[in-house]
Amino acid sequence: MLLQGKKLLITGVLTPASIAFHVAKLAQQEGAEVLLTSFGRPMSLTQRTAKKLSPVPEVLELDVTNPAHFPALHDAIKQRWGRLDGVLHAVAFAPEDALGGKFLTAPWESVMQAFRVSTFSLKELAAATAPLFDKGGGIVTLDFDNSTTAWPLYDWMGVCKAGLEATVRYLARDLGSKQIRVNALAAGPIATIAAKGIPGFKHLEDKWGRQAPLGWDARSEASIAAVARTTCVLLSDWMPSTTGELVRVDGGYHAIGAEPVDPAILAAAAPAKDPGAA
Ligand SMILES: NC(=O)c1ccc[n+]([C@@H]2O[C@H](COP(=O)([O-])OP(=O)(O)OC[C@H]3O[C@@H](n4cnc5c(N)ncnc54)[C@H](O)[C@@H]3O)[C@@H](O)[C@H]2O)c1
Q: Which CATH number describes the domain made up of 7-269?
């Protein structure tokens, strides 16, 4: 099995629709032991969702805006397992006034909160858990690709994701000597609670399905399974020399400039054929 005997810390499980839930489920099927994290009010929801996993994993406390939670998380893992092989960072949040076409009016306090939860938290999580990786391993974060483009409505979350990609590279630089690989997986749109908080998500979802050469459906088992599978590969020993990388799992959307042209439009636009031509 791909992850036989691996000890994995998985953040970001909220509901059974969470990307992290699918990763946790598949990782267990592939032989991994799993610990989850949650915090505050969402904790009871995470605990309910954890019951759908087998065996039911323990849920440790981690609010990424609380600096005291990181050393406590380290100690809790050390006490339970003594060590770690992998971490999934699947945490993001931006206040409403930092999204949805409010780029020019978003206040610093909201941008700061989005950056702290969605970007700086990767550094905090990596720094807290790195001492537990006694045989190297993998840290994976979930991204929505913002390396070269600006998206409609994504606004400051897009800036946070661009920062997340840069954070991945700096962590890869600093943790490589411990054989810890740090990579980002850029997923296409998946219909989760976080996605519903992005105004205009439905528009993006429909467009994605038309443009991705392999196809994409934000509500299908196939798309979320593709994200979970690739995350598990990145956490496994099967990409041993890949770090600081952005791996896209998006049906190939990013490689194509625009939606395909409707053949009916193409036919209507074609010049009439010269009857004398061969
Ligand atoms: N859904 C998509 O279309 C999509 C696409 C690409 C990338 N992603 C990324 O995947 C990751 C997981 O999101 P999801 O779509 O599964 O949604 P989700 O809502 O299920 O997960 C988001 C998680 O962030 C956690 N979180 C928020 N604030 C936190 C805090 N202060 N401390 C600790 N945890 C906190 C929530 O509890 C939740 O578990 C996010 O980074 C998201 O940006 C999602």
A: 3.40.50.720
